[in-house]
Amino acid sequence: MQTDRLFKLSTRRKFAGGAALAMIATLLVVAATTLAIRMTRQVEDRTERVSKTQARMERIRAALHAHAASQGRLPCPANGAQDTGLAVPVAAAVMCTHRDGTVPWVSLGLQAEDALDGWGHKISYRVPDSFVQVDSVKSSNSSTAGLKVKDYLVDRYKLAWVLISHGASGLGAWRVFLPQMALPGAGGNEWDNTQAAPVEFFRRGEALVDPATGVEYALNNAAHFDDVLLYESIEDLKNRSGFDLNTRMTTRRLDSGPGGKVTYTGRNANTASITFDSSTEWGDITVSSPGGNISRNAYGTGIGVCSGACNDDATAALDASKKLAFKLDVGKTAQKFSIGILSIEPTVEFLLTFKNGGIPVGSSVRVPLPPPPPALPDPPPPKPVELGKLVKFDYLQPNPPGSFNEVEIQPLGTSRFFIASIRFCTAAENCN
Description:
Elements: H1 2-71, E1 124-126, H2 136-139, E2 147-151, E3 154-165, H3 189-192, E4 201-203, E5 228-233, H4 234-240, E6 247-248, H5 251-254, E7 256-257, E8 260-261, E9 273-277, E10 284-288, E11 293-296, E12 303-306, H6 313-316, E13 324-328, E14 336-343, E15 350-356, E16 359-360, E17 365-367, E18 391-396, E19 406-411, E20 417-425
Parallel strand pairs: 2-4
Antiparallel strand pairs: 1-3, 2-3, 3-5, 6-20, 7-8, 9-10, 10-13, 11-12, 13-19, 14-18, 14-20, 15-16, 15-17, 15-19
């Protein structure tokens, strides 16, 4: 009897122990599942907030393009401590008042929420002082200094602006109706992102946990990083705001220049000379034809010469019997030249004559240069050039090199094309 009692007690204890273990295992599974769900939700929440931040930054980018196009410059940052959304100063300036400020949403024609990141903090905005001056975007060139960002260890130079969201932590961010949040740890990348130019800004991967210990960084740890950045190069800003480094031969640009209103009859400009604003540091440029009226292609994206009938692209294009000359304003000279061409023939060949004060500089340059004798076996024939596809020729200059203020273009052989873009360059520029 005693043995049976002990056996039953032992069995009960085993069952109880097994049930307890099963319950503990269940609780562990539930805890792990809950933790996984919570972590998944946290990741999803951050992803959603980052996406919202990026979408709003893209709206700001478009507004900066519109401001640059209409004003010829970028706005100053707003005072982060105030909620007016106005650039300070509003007008063009030599130096901005709050160089470490925030997006001036009112000055950019945006809604207040467009200037907030996904966590409800004001988006910081950095711009070089040189880009808030009168016509500063319009007059900038490839040698103009700008901001700098280290993007995942790659240095990005000559930037026109930088937008900074200070992430989920919000360290250093300005808030609506509230004081600025605590600054990040001094000496870290987040600290740099709270400063004014000319400091280098940082875009990199998120760093929340110490990889050596697996422990989350304290928010004031210099290694902590959760910022989100967007930036744009000077060249891209000029291109997207209509002040591209390459001067495009569009009807819009040519029909209302300093030389007066140009009235087209179909493709015919009804004039042999047009002076227009290049929207670059070169100022006004005069394009002229000695053998007919200036013409345009069907889409108004390139110019040629009408020497008679001008009913289609074939008769409106430049050919071996026609020339176009581009001349800089008084007092300006260049050392390099690039050109973009829309061809209606499979190959492109033309002669460039560089002049200064009407006198040729060096010898004329044949483009492209005559090919070398074919190797054996013969190379495949060149691919046809598509009409509407821009073919660019860069770094062109007199031979021997010298300064010039005028370039004359004449097709060779059977070449027929429209000139879509030109660019005058200094000796120090990358002329492409």
